[in-house]
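Collaborator request, handled under Task 6.
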Amino acid sequence: MNIYRALTDLETNAVAEMVGSRPACFKSSHPALKLAGKGSTDATAELWNYYFVLDLSSYDSSTPHYIDFTFAFTDTTKVLTNLSLGATYEFGISDIKMVYDWDSLVLNTTSNEVDGTKDLSSLNLNQMMTSMPLSKADIRKIQIESLPVYFYAQKPASGTAIANKIGTLSLKGSVDLSYSYYDTSTSSYLPKTDNVLAAGSTVPFVDAVPWPTDTDAAVTSKSTVYPYLSEAKASFTDKNSEESIATIMNKYPGMKNDDADADIPGLSLNYKLHLDGGGSDVTIYSAMVDEVKSGTAADKVVNIDIDMAAILKFSFKLTDQIKIGLMKYVDDTWETDTTKDLLNRDGASAYDDYLKYADAIDYIALKYNVTNKLFSNFDMSVSLTDTSSALNKNLTFSSGNNLLKFSKDEVEKVMTTYPFHPNIDIALGKAGQTSALKFNRSALSSTEKAVGATVYATVKMNGDTPITVWGGKE
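Structure tokens returned to the collaborator:
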């Protein structure tokens, strides 16, 4: 602190001892000099505008929103004027406020690679099939035909200064998928790692993708999302992957062969990425960000996000026929207790009563009209088989009118067989063949019924055998 004043020798020394520094000395020729001064004891606010360089090289990414830094003001001298001798002054700093802002940041494209792992275990066909009454073996028969996956970086809207600056940059790196699966050929669990984006591959920058806010919204080639994905040309496909994503998904990563087995790891994505291009340093100014935020773009994105989008088509294939037994859902002990009778008879002694009605029946016909707008040309049927009565009937689910007829002999076999314990199964696809299973998306969104059936039963009597009508006479 420097204080300058014209004083006598004696006065100069006294003041110097008081303030702890020796100011410049001036001699006066007037022996009766009187000192006077003007000043104010009011507090005054001082404002420093100072931009310092913040080095983030030691940033601890494990602690969110935390950066440890220090800074110092270069101008540390404050000149005080108009002081009066004999007056008391107090100096202090209070009500300190730090209003922080930023002017620019420098992206160093020569920085080290950023690597990490992302859990993708929720991306599996097994979870999609959990609501279906299928065994693990039958679930593996359901395969997806293709699964293009797009890996891209979203950038601020095109045409802005920040987008133009980022346009000189690119992301490069590699991506692997690691997982464990049950190998049916060896009856064992195997770990696997597949490279789906080779080292040095470029991850494209695209404008912020306008994903629909409604999660039930369908994404098609006519959606606003599609042009953005088309721009992200570096997708994980059969051509640029060690093994196609569809092939990996069809191994059912993370799905146990038996629920009692120990858990196995599902799908995880491992990446190594780094910035490239634009010289060693690329400077981004705050004014560029302000331009985007004050613009008219609906999505004012100023950050860079790395996203992955998988396009799952409603198109599958069955590698073999799948049969679903229906009777176990009617009676959970049906498959284990073979003494149960579908007609709920107490025993074989009830033959005579049932045979009387069987003699009066010429045939029983079930006429049913099937509506099937959901599945395109897919083989699906229902079979009713019973070993004891040698009964074997099949119901087809072809769209339109269908007929299932039980002759007099077949009705008699059912009535005279105890217990009548048939198996009723739904068969999907053809045995020993690969079948296409395609869903019509329009049928799912339509207000009309996608799948259904209207059934009419006709009982033709022979007219010669009298029967007793309940509550009446023969």
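The cover message to the collaborator said: "Residues 44 and 79 are 14 Å apart (CA to CA). Residues 107-313 form one domain. Please let us know whether this matches your experimental observations."
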